[in-house]
Amino acid sequence: MAPVKHRKIVMLGYPSVGKSSLALQFFKGDFPKDYEPTIENTWSKTFVMGSDEFELDVVDTAGQDEYSLLPQSFIFGIHGYIVVYSVACSRSFQIARAIHSILVDKRGKCLMPIVLVGNKNDLPTHCREVKPEDGKKLAESWGAAFLEVSAKDPERSKLIFTKMIEEIDRVERSFDEE
Ligand code: GDP
Fold first, then answer.
1. Sign of dihedral through CA atoms 60, 62, 65, 69?
2. Residue 9: φ, ψ to 5°
3. pLDDT tens profile 164-177
4. Is 146 helix (H, G, I), strand (E, B) or coil?
5. ipTM attached to this prediction
6. What is the rounded distance in angstroms from the CA atom of residue 39 to the CA atom of residue 163?
7. SS3 for 39?
8. Using an 8 Å Cβ cutoff, are 153 and 122 in contact?
9. Cα 175 to the center of its chain, rounded Å
10. How far is the CA of 5 from the centre of ligand 1 (A)?
11. What's the pLDDT tens digit per position in 62-112?
């Protein structure tokens, strides 16, 4: 088997959009009812995808707004970003845009694999404030992948992390070809 590939990923997004719930669903297989608000936490897991083995470190952050200054530790040595908003909160969608601008400012445009995630799509239709098409369009404008999910759904939560790994490979390959 090929050597283990290390991938360090940061989860960003407005507070309460479900970042911790998505991470817990993937790392612990549980949707917690009363998880404490995150200060910052790093989850680690080794898993196999295709013929590759990955050592995945995921930094779950406290949450950002448009004035957040992302620390250097979220910029250097990071392979990819999972940017989360809630489909039931248009403000969190605005903040996802703001976070992307902050990232571009700090990192420059190249080599920035991103998965944009619209979470809480299990909520009833009348709660919805962000259309799936709007999430898709925003991700396209960033050259990023897009998923709508619910942290209550283990398979969809896992898909975020496998998609992230695929995006990192895709962006790195396209960079090598340039
Ligand atoms: P974070 O601050 O972004 O880490 O958000 P949390 O994971 O702490 O979640 C904030 C609240 O949203 C909690 O009450 C969660 O139970 C709830 N929540 C998270 N994900 C979902 C989801 O997919 N669907 C629903 N209905 N609630 C969710």
1. negative
2. -125, 145
3. 999 999 988 887 76
4. strand
5. 0.99
6. 25
7. coil
8. yes
9. 21
10. 30
11. 999 988 889 999 999 999 999 999 999 999 999 999 999 999 999 886 679
Q: Does residue 60 contact residue 41 with C-beta atoms inside 8 Å?
A: yes
User: Residue holding tokens 């998923």?
Assistant: 147
Structure tokens at 132: 């799936």
Centroid of ligand 1 to alpha carbon of 28 (angstroms)? 15
Q: Which amino acid is at 4?
A: V
Question: Which residue type does 87 have?
Answer: V
Where does residue 74 rank: exposed (0-12), middle (13-18), buried (19+ CB within 10 A)? buried
**Dihedral sign (CA 62, 168, 86, 72):** positive
54 with 165: CB under 8 angstroms?
A: yes
Ligand 1 cavity residues, CB under 6 Å: 13, 15-21, 35, 37-38, 63, 119-120, 122-123, 150-152
Q: What pLDDT is attached to residue 35?
A: 67
What is the distance in A from the centroid of ligand 1 to the CA of 120?
Answer: 7
Of 7, 33, 12, 4, nearest to 117 by C-alpha is 12
Global pTM reads: 0.95
Give the CA angle between residues 123, 127, 132 to the nearest 5°.
Answer: 75
Taking the C-alpha atoms of residue 26 and residue 143, their distance in angstroms, rounded to an integer, is 25
Pocket mutation for ligand 1, best pick of 10, 12, 16 (most atoms within 8 Å of C-beta): 16
